[in-house]
């Protein structure tokens, strides 16, 4: 029986193990933390209303076919996040904007985006790119807005695109390739306000928490095949067909030898592993060391009622989704559709704002952490500008998910920086002999999504299956 190891028991590693098992191959999984699931982390106990919140991976879109297939396979049910056609709230320059106020300038931007997309082409990678693709890859998203949006960042549309692009990919737009913005917005109907990285039409979550999926997959694997608290510290090629993995474990150092290994850990973590003897190609090493990672943080505040749907100076009706140029950036109603009383509002911050929490622990509540209490107070103060009177309905409970501070993640999800599409985009998942790579950071089409992680887990497993 071949010796196969998988490093990382997030969705990519678990799906890879499941795919190998379906093909009659066994493997061992090694996970540095004390839990499975990686960036799928559901909170089912914090909220008085009984609501479930997702600390990291949240939305499953209609075209996430692999995730829907896994959900069906394990008999899980989903919760639709369809919000109808009610508009969003935009709050820029200390005033509300209705979506219909922005239709004309959004149409102008949409025309530019479509023209540029035609010139660039549908895919840009290190292997496949046009001259226009290279040019826009080396232009930051911030500069794109300054050049191609009338009024640049001084306009509401410029602010909207900047905040949504930062939120979707996780870094400040000054650090991102403008291709991120173009590929995000060009296929969408901007004139209808389809500008969000938050729930799209036909998006869903798993009822009761997304974490049920990795747990279900883990239960289907052989008992004893998952080893927690095993942190990879070194990897070495030992000839053509053997790899040595060195771990730090509660029982002391451990060396594992295998014929194939799938590395699913984020490149932010792989940078800390000694891979000098792994014989990685120069381009792979550069991708590992330089690939951008977002710094998204999620701050949840609980209210005794969804006050934002009440009558007030804000536009009504709306769908519980807010974009603002205040520090709280993007907000949505997490309790929407869960059938619970009360309200749960999420402030989704990214870039330098998302990285600024500096919390002593990556996941905490107001009951446990002064950092969370201060962050909640600041958020509430800013919310008063959008929804005057909302503070009276705050229950005092809040929670923070700060993945940038998680020592097993050190970021939210991958994001190509300026110039990285054409430098190594698409090479992140390329195998290096018996060493394979998986995770959302290896996906071109679904970078940053649970879908990307799941698909890449299957791809890496198939590479091994085809070798036998």
UniProtKB/TrEMBL annotation:
InterPro entries: Amino_oxidase, FAD/NAD-bd_sf, Flavin_amine_oxidase, Flavin_monoamine_oxidase
Highest rank taxon of the organism: Bacteria
Binding site for FAD: 31-32
Co-factor(s): FAD
Oxidoreductase in keyword set: yes
UniProt protein name: Amine oxidase domain-containing protein
Domain Amine oxidase: 11-465
Keywords on record: Oxidoreductase
Binding site for substrate: 348
Oxidoreductase keyword on record: yes
């Amino acid at each position: 029986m071949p010796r196969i190891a998988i490093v990382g028991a997030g969705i990519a590693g678990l799906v890879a193990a499941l795919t190998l098992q379906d093909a009659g191959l066994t493997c061992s999984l090694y996970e540095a933390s004390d839990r499975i699931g990686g960036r799928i982390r559901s909170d089912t106990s914090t909220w008085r209303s009984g609501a479930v919140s997702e600390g990291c991976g949240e939305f499953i879109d209609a075209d996430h076919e692999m995730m829907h297939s896994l959900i069906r396979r394990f008999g899980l049910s989903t919760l639709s996040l369809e919000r109808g056609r009610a508009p969003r709230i935009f709050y820029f320059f200390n005033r509300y904007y209705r979506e219909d106020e922005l239709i004309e300038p959004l149409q102008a931007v949409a025309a530019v985006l479509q023209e540029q997309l035609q010139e660039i082409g549908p895919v840009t990678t290190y292997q496949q790119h046009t001259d226009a693709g290279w040019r826009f890859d080396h232009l930051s998203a911030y500069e794109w807005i300054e050049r191609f949006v009338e009024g640049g960042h001084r306009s509401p549309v410029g602010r909207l695109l900047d905040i949504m692009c930062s939120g979707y990919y996780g870094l400040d737009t000054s650090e991102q390739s403008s291709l991120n913005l173009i590929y995000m917005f060009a296929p969408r109907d901007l004139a209808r306000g389809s500008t969000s990285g938050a729930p799209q039409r036909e998006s869903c979550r798993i009822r009761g928490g997304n974490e049920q999926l990795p747990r279900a997959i883990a239960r289907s694997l052989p008992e004893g095949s998952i080893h927690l608290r095993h942190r990879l510290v070194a990897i070495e090629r030992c000839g053509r067909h053997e790899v040595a993995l060195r771990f730090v474990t509660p029982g002391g150092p451990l060396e594992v030898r295998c014929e194939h290994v799938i590395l699913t850990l984020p490149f932010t973590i792989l940078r800390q592993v000694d891979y000098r003897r792994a014989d990685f190609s120069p381009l792979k090493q550069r991708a590992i060391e330089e690939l951008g990672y977002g710094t998204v943080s999620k701050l949840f505040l609980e209210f005794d009622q969804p006050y934002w749907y009440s009558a007030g100076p804000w536009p009504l009706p709306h769908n519980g989704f807010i974009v603002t140029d205040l520090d709280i950036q993007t907000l949505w109603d997490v309790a929407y559709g869960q059938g619970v009383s009360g309200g749960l509002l999420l402030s989704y911050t990214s870039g330098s704002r998302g990285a600024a929490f500096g919390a002593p622990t990556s996941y905490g509540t107001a009951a446990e952490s002064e950092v969370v209490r201060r962050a909640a107070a600041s958020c509430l103060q800013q919310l008063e500008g959008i929804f005057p009177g909302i503070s009276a309905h705050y229950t005092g409970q809040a929670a923070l998910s700060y993945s940038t501070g998680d020592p097993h993640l050190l970021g939210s999800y991958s994001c190509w920086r300026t110039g990285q599409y054409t430098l190594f985009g698409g090479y992140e998942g390329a195998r290096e002999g018996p060493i394979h790579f998986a995770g959302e950071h290896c996906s071109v089409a679904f970078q940053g999504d649970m879908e990307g992680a799941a698909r890449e887990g299957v791809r890496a497993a198939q590479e091994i299956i085809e070798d036998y």
